[in-house]
Amino acid sequence: MTGLPFSAVVGQDDARLALLLGAVDPGIGGVLLTGEKGTAKTTLVRALTGILPSISVVAGCRFSCDPADPDSGCPDGPHLPGVGAEHRVALLVELPLGATDDRVTGSLDVPRVLAGASTAEAFAPGLLALAHRGVLYVDEINLLPDHIVDVLLDAAATGATSVEREGISLRHASAFLLVGTMNPEEGELRPQLLDRFGLCVPVVASDDPARRAAVVRARLDHDRSPAASTEAHAAAEREFTSRISAARARLAGVELRDPELLRVTTACATLGVDGMRGDLITCRAAVAHAAWQQLDAVTGPDIRVAARLALLHRQRRGPFDDPGADADQLEKALGPDEEDDALPPDDDRSSDGSQPHDESGAPDNAAAPSDDGGSPDGGSSPDSGGSPDSGGSPNGGGGGQRPESPHAAGGGGSAAPASAPAPTGISAPPGATFRVRHIQATGLGSGFEGRRSGSRGPHGRPIAAVRSSSRPELLPTVRAAVLARPGAAFTVTDGDLRASLRRGRESNLIVLLLDTSGSMAARRRSATVATTALSLLSDAYRRRDRVALLTFRGAGATVVVPPTGSVELAARRLRDLPVGGRTPLAAGLDAVRQLVRREGWRDPARRPILVLITDGRATGDGDAVAQAKRAASALARTATTSIVVDAEEGPVRLGLAGVVARHLAADLVTVPGLAARTGPLREQAGHALASIIRAKEAS
Q: What residues are annotated to the active site?
């Protein structure tokens, strides 16, 4: 079945406009579509290639060189003038989540090198070379390792890829439009990587029933008769293709005058945008938008549209900061548009150009279902601030997040709290975080690349060479061949093929189990628990871990945040935890054991680490202490690495947390002992907790 045509997609005006501007000028640096599932992100990206102009490539060139301007450093070159050409569509290359470095950048065919082939001949191009002059699409880009995302963004910004590996040094052109999509519920992109995306668009489903009906009708009509749907939108698709070609040709001649440039830089300074990338990208996007609108100079509406797409995601500095400025702040920073003589008085152009002037030749009937009440793709006015489908926070965080109901794992009733609970029944807010000591799982794992526990696998530093006929590496193979036949003429046999055995670091699943019962509900102790948990979440963010957050109180345990890559989501949920009631410690430990077992089925390579923050008390029906001991012993048998943080305070201590730690086979630490081992950082934890205590006592 053919995909939905680009012009048949209803709504998502800003997302479509961002993709069109990226197609006009890939040097903008990539487009990130972020939002909830089921909002046509992937549909839009795959439909984009249907409207991109076809390209001419040098016949037989694996790197898709342009015959009119071939890459002088092409490994398949040099290409002489008048070389044969082939015509083909621009490719959409999809990068899978499990892609390795050599699959992305290219690899060396070791047997061919050893057989006498040159480095260029034996180089196997990667996905970056395949995407040259096309589109590179990464779904769930927030789940890729950071160093892979860095490589993609470098290539997208520079238009070239450099390969330095196994004694080879090679460069080739790789100018493409990078498009990433992500669901923020699975984890945010780190601020330093988010900033390197040129444009970022939140993609949100419309709340308007009529618009939703138009979306469903368009999809049903296409699924019922793909050929008829494609034919109905063929004229609109051709119009998009011709306008992209015209905009590319016009791009170099579009003028950015000094007043418009100053307006961009003033807005960036007012919003506190770090560095100069935001200024540069906004200017490039404004120039591309002017070219798309068939103008010779950038105008106020062009700047307004470009700023909306390029600046809103550049406000975030820390892992738990709000995603960025809102639309009102941006409007104030930009100020009002001046009257622009370049626009005709009756200009009703839409920002994505889906309803161009009559003289452009666009067919009047090139529209998606008329329920939309707009242009073929629901275009919005360039200074309108976006369609109803395009609202929300840039990263799906904070204000735009829909509330989620916690998943009960064993009941959630509560009784009267025991010791001076917070008056509202909500945990006290956390204080300033401190740097925690390095926590890691025992032994060596083979999980996803990260920064926490030791691992063996394809990442890390080489420590030995092992036989490998499937993916041999050049240097270990040559070394094995020389050592096998010293003094003889150099030859390589199948038995000489070697690969490196590597040791690195993996990410883990950090399971935080918090005691929020009555014994922990006093404001001072509640704030201590919240601060400790937030410090652990900050550490998990730095080390690229997944996290889960569970609490126990009243009659049972609650999974507040199921396992997720979104440490930010866990941090937000941490601020409004209900407290008080009995202490069902056994229920909390059983909930962790069930969660670990389920995650072991889903992701067996990712090892869990439990951090339990409690004073060790256990209350409830029957012998609650004996039940807690049995639950701890059962969890210990799963080989889960565990740490118990003793939150007991005061001059008289019962040491019950130590009993739990023994049955868990866990390390036992105090809150100050959880801080990093360097003196100043350990003092930092003590000072942070002391300031919390003073603030709560003063209030």
A: 277
